Amino acid sequence: MRRLTILAGVLAATTLTGTPAALAAKAPPMAVKVAVTAAQTRFHTTHIHADFTLLSRRDRRWALVDGFATARNRLWAAWLHNDRANRWTLRYFDTSAPFEPGSTSHGRVPCDLYPAFSEPACPSGPSATQIRTRVAKQLTPIGGAARIRGLLAHRGYTFSFKPPLGGTLIVTWYTASGGNSAKPKLLARGHADFLDRHTGTIKIVLTSTGRHVLAKATSLNVTAKATFTPIERAAVTTSRTFTLTR
User: Alpha carbon of 112 to those of 6, 64, 93, 100: distances in Å?
Assistant: First the structure.
């Protein structure tokens, strides 16, 4: 009864928004184990319950585990991060409302993991039009590597991409129609996943047709088509036409 009273008080002060629990991804068992061990150490008891777990949709390297320490009549919440060695480590631990983590030099916990004992909705982020504009601005290749000679030497083009938010980017290059009825030829394609808004890289790899067409060209009009699919949002498509020179 004491446990239910404490939990009810926390929930009353917490805004419950976001995705229903039935649709939420649960934290991996190893993350739960690390969180429970941390709670046992903090409260000096083995009577620890993990009542709710959640894996971030924004950044799947982060997880939330919260529960109740029976012997202490205390609620607790733990935020964990999965490092490059695939090890879950404790980053934040809190035992008082509103159960929100702090920030450190390692970065901020994803917005869909706090406050605990709820499933908060993240800010909506940029609109589809804003995403389309930001993606399109980055589609035109630049520098020596973007010349025909450089593309053939590297069998494609690698560039830095700053995503408007976490998601997947797919880019394809076609010969520009130029107003004629000829079917555009697929020259290159590539894709990359971005966990958040941090800048990453994507490589556009030439197809065999692309290598053949570029080998004979001194200049070529190309249309880059991009589809960016934000995490848990509808895909946005845009394009940009440019001229490749030797």
Answer: 23, 10, 17, 11
Architecture of the CATH domain 128-245: Sandwich (2.60)
Tens place of pLDDT per residue across the chain (246 aa) = 445 444 444 444 444 344 444 456 899 999 999 999 999 999 999 999 998 899 988 788 899 999 999 888 899 999 999 987 889 999 999 998 778 776 543 457 887 888 887 766 676 788 899 999 999 999 999 999 999 999 999 999 999 999 998 899 999 999 987 666 678 999 999 999 998 888 999 999 999 999 999 999 999 999 999 999 987 788 999 999 999 999
Element (H, E) at 187: strand 186-194
Structure tokens at 72: 């202490």
Beta bridge mates, 52: 66
Q: What is the spatial distance between Cα 89 and Cα 243, in angstroms, rounded to a whole number?
A: 49
Give the separation between CA 228 and CA 78, rounded to whole angstroms.
Answer: 32
In angstroms, rounded to a whole number, what is the distance separating the alpha carbons of residues 57 and 185?
Answer: 36
Give the tokens for residue 213. 């067409």
DSSP secondary structure code for residue 227 in this structure? E
Dihedral angle, C-alpha 226, 231, 232, 236, nearest 10 °: -20
